[in-house]
Amino acid sequence: MQPRDIWGGWPWYGAITLALGLLLALIGPFGTFADLNLAQRLLYWIGIFIANGLQVLGALLLILWRFGARWPPVAIGAAAGFLASIPATGEVILLEMWLRPWLHPNPRATPLTTFGNVLLLTEAITVTITVVRAHMVRLKASAKVEVAPAAPAERGDRLMKRIKPEARGELLALEMEDHYLRVHTARGSDLILHRLSDALNEVAGLDGLQVHRSYWVARAAVQAVERDGRRLALVLKNGLKVPVSRNNIAILKSAGWV
Questions:
Q1: Structure confidence at residue 248 as a pLDDT band (50, 70, 90)
Q2: Domain ranges of the chain
Q3: The domain 152-254 is classified under which CATH number: 3.30.360.10, 2.40.50.1020, 3.30.710.10, 3.40.50.1240?
Q4: Would you put residue 229 in left (φ > 0), alpha (ψ -120 to 50) or beta?
Q5: Using one digit for the tens of pLDDT, what is the confidence trace for 169-195?
Q6: How far apart are CA 236 and CA 227, in angstroms?
Q7: Cβ–Cβ < 8 Å for 62, 76
Q8: Rounded to an integer, what distance in angstroms lies between the CA atom of residue 22 and that of residue 41?
Q9: Of 58-62, 102-106, 138-142, which one has max mean pLDDT?
Q10: Which residue has the higher pLDDT, 24 or 142?
């Protein structure tokens, strides 16, 4: 996933947040059913879920912006749930002191036990939502209508349309990252949900080669060649060093790249 995939699902998160808050207000866990009336429980649980939902959303955006697709959805959700639980613990304590002041001070309800309860509930919801959202993004990408192969001159343009406008420019390289593809251009890079094998078909008309199972490089992007014993790497205009697999060294030599 990318940050825009999370932000684009905000109506979905809002509906889930309100539904869960309403459900727990009716059930009344952690003694709230016996201690609070319905109006107080609605305020308690819906307020907690709205506040914590915004914190989870912010944590997800922060983690995806910082680490991108290098983490699996389960890890992204778990990290976001942990971060959001820290301020949520303080919010729960303040709500408890306001709505159930007779329970405070309570030696059994320490900040640590409150954090444990908040963390357990937040992690269960956040990890589930993150995994489901990632699955929805994959389904949306795989459901794209197949079109007839484009003419060679058009294939590079089709790939450019998949990345953010500010990164579109001269294509330098393609880099596979798990189930994602990082497109390197002269104006930057962007990570998209796309297979390298499909991208190779889209750039088949361009002057470039697949130099490694995870990399395709445009010929014009190569600025220098580095050798380290039997290892070979291409240094591109943007400073990226691309390893060349041993099986492809002979192909590069025959093509006049090295």
A1: confident
A2: 3-142, 152-254
A3: 2.40.50.1020
A4: left
A5: 999 999 999 889 999 999 999 999 999
A6: 14
A7: no
A8: 9
A9: 58-62
A10: 24
Q: What is the C-alpha to C-alpha distance for residues 186 and 238, in angstroms, rounded to an integer?
A: 7
Residue position matching structure tokens 């790497």: 233
Least Cα distance to 172 among 159, 182, 155, 185 occurs for 185
Is this prediction's pTM over 0.85? no
Please check the confidence at residue 151 and state whether its pLDDT lies above 50: no
Local structure of 185: helix, strand or coil: strand
| Cα–Cα dist 228/128, whole Å | 46
Task: Quickly state the pLDDT bin for 70 (edges 50, 70, 90).
Answer: low
Separation in Å, CA 27 to CA 41, 42, 51, 107, 169: 9, 11, 20, 25, 55
Q: In whole angstroms, give the CA distance from residue 183 to residue 176.
A: 9
- pLDDT average, residue stretch 237-245: 93
The string of DSSP codes covering 94-116 is HHHHHH-GGG-S-TTS-HHHHHH
Strand partners, 228: 231
Distance CA 211, CA 225 (A): 13
DSSP code for 206: S
Question: How far is C-alpha 248 from the geometric centre of its chain's CA atoms?
Answer: 32
pLDDT above 50 for 148: no
